[in-house]
């Protein structure tokens, strides 16, 4: 996709600064994991995995992620199948029924903070029934997969990307993280 803005793209590598003023591009260490750039890079790191779980924020363009990873894995000679975890969500009616007690009745301004967990929005029987079909690599992807405790990599939208995502389109090089 082509970006629909003249807004500059945040640099992949940050230049070092010597002054100690407000930093519009703060940097923090990553402990016990890895941050990478690009689909080819991610595919090369995961090429020998049998099952991969990809998680990401709402707003991640999963069609772009899946088509790019498919191409990257195919160029490495691997056959890949994908499964969207959204297929395991409870029905809209069931979710509405489940959250009803927290909505504040006739006056939704006075709703309540829920104590529901993410896993309660999914039909766990459907999750347990996910079948790994015969392929080199089986990838389960979607939002809030963290509740499965199996996340291998996650996709992030940096703050600038979130602000401009509707008008800009995706970054040329995705930023991803991996739990080691």
Offer a concise description of the structure:
This protein is of the alpha/beta class. It has 5 helices and 6 strands. Strands 1-6-5-2-4-3 form a 6-stranded mixed beta sheet, with helices on one face.
What ranges have pLDDT less than 50 throughout 5 or more consecutive residues? Answer: 157-173
- Main sheet characteristics: 6 strands, mixed
Please tally the helical runs, counting DSSP H or I stretches of 4 or more residues.
5
Strand content: 15-25%
The ordered H/E elements are EHEHEHHEEHE
Please give the oligomerization state of what you see.
single chain
Helix content: 25-40%
Question: What would your notes on this structure say?
Answer:
The protein is α/β, with parallel strands linked by helices and 180 residues long. It has one domain (39-179). It has helices at residues 39-46, 62-75, 92-99, 124-128, 159-168; strands at 33-37, 51-56, 80-84, 137-142, 153-155, 175-179. It has a six-stranded mixed β-sheet with strand order 1-6-5-2-4-3, covered by helices on one side. Helix 1 packs across helix 2.
Q: Which features does this protein show?
A:
six-stranded mixed β-sheet, flat, alpha/beta, 180 residues, 5 helices
Secondary-structure blueprint:
Elements: E1 33-37, H1 39-46, E2 51-56, H2 62-75, E3 80-84, H3 92-99, H4 124-128, E4 137-142, E5 153-155, H5 159-168, E6 175-179
Parallel strand pairs: 2-4, 2-5, 3-4
Antiparallel strand pairs: 1-6, 5-6
Helix pairs in contact: 1-2
């Amino acid at each position: 996709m082509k970006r629909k803005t003249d807004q500059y793209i945040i640099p992949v590598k940050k230049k070092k600064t010597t002054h100690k003023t407000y930093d519009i591009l703060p940097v923090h260490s990553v402990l016990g994991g890895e941050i990478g750039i690009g689909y080819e890079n991610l595919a090369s790191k995961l090429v020998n995995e049998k099952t991969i779980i990809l998680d990401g924020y709402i707003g991640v363009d999963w069609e772009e992620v899946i088509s790019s990873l498919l191409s990257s894995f195919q160029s490495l000679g691997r056959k890949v199948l994908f499964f969207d975890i959204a297929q395991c969500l409870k029905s809209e009616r069931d979710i509405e029924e489940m959250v009803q007690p927290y909505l504040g009745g006739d006056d939704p301004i006075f709703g309540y903070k829920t104590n529901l967990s993410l896993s309660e929005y999914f039909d766990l029987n459907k999750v347990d029934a996910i079948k790994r079909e015969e392929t080199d690599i089986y990838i389960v992807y979607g939002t809030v997969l963290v509740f499965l405790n199996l996340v291998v990599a996650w996709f992030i939208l940096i703050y600038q990307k979130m602000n401009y995502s509707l008008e800009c389109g995706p970054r040329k090089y995705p930023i991803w993280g991996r739990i080691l």
